[in-house]
Amino acid sequence: MMGWIIVFLLVLICVAALIWLGKLSRSTYEITAAALLLGVAGYAWQGNPGMAGVSVEPMEDANSFNEDTIDARNELGERFGTAQEWLIFSDSLNRSGKHGAAANYLRNGVKEHPDDPDLWVGLGNALVVHANGVITPAAQFAFQKAADLSPEHPGPPFFLGLAYAQSGKIDQARAIWTELLARSSDDAPWREDLESRLATMEQIQPTLPMEPKTPSEQ
Fold first, then answer.
1. What are phi and psi of 52, to 5 degrees?
2. Environment class of 218 (CB within 10 Å of its CB; exposed 0-12, middle 13-18, buried 19+)
3. Helix-helix angle 155-166:68-75, to 10 degrees
4. Which of 100, 97, 103 is nearest to 59 (CA)?
5. Which of 83, 98, 115, 144 has the most CB atoms around its CB within 10 Å?
6. What is the pLDDT confidence band of residue 43, given thresholds at 50, 70 and 90?
7. What is the pLDDT of residue 119?
8. What's 3-60 look like in SS3?
9. pLDDT value, residue 151
């Protein structure tokens, strides 16, 4: 009922405004009023002013966020220091499907702490999730920035390789992980997981043997 009252009040206001501000003649405003009433009649036939409004917000694919990434980060030491608070909150945003918000949140993190490699790695991961598993130039930059800040940190090459693998660039991922494995100590907590990933990768796409050179090429 309240909806109809509002509709008729709006009609009366429109008619009054047209007569007063538009200075319409009697015949003109009678035609205008008839047109407005005709519109109200049409709405009464098909509309429903009492229906609740619906706010539609763009949603992202919550399934593009992999919880295994968090476990890998824990093994690689990303949960220590300044990055912890930022990463925990960005994870909660990713779980709810707000991948763009998670990436923007970590952008603010690296602005406040530009020398924290863990935050740069986290930003790279968030950007990959936001792009549905595709490694973008922005994500590559974030991983490279982390590697520049901490060359011995296993996180940047590990997650850069993971991003390449998710993007279908298996050769690049294999090369990066093989190099990381070669410089990892025998008791490194991430070594077993890395070996397992490389073994799985080898089963999916074996390394192609190099073709022997012909005498003319030697």
1. -70, 145
2. exposed
3. 160
4. 97
5. 83
6. low
7. 93
8. HHHHHHHHHHHHHHHHHHHHCCCHHHHHHHHHHHHHHHHHHHHHCCCCCCCCCCCCCC
9. 92
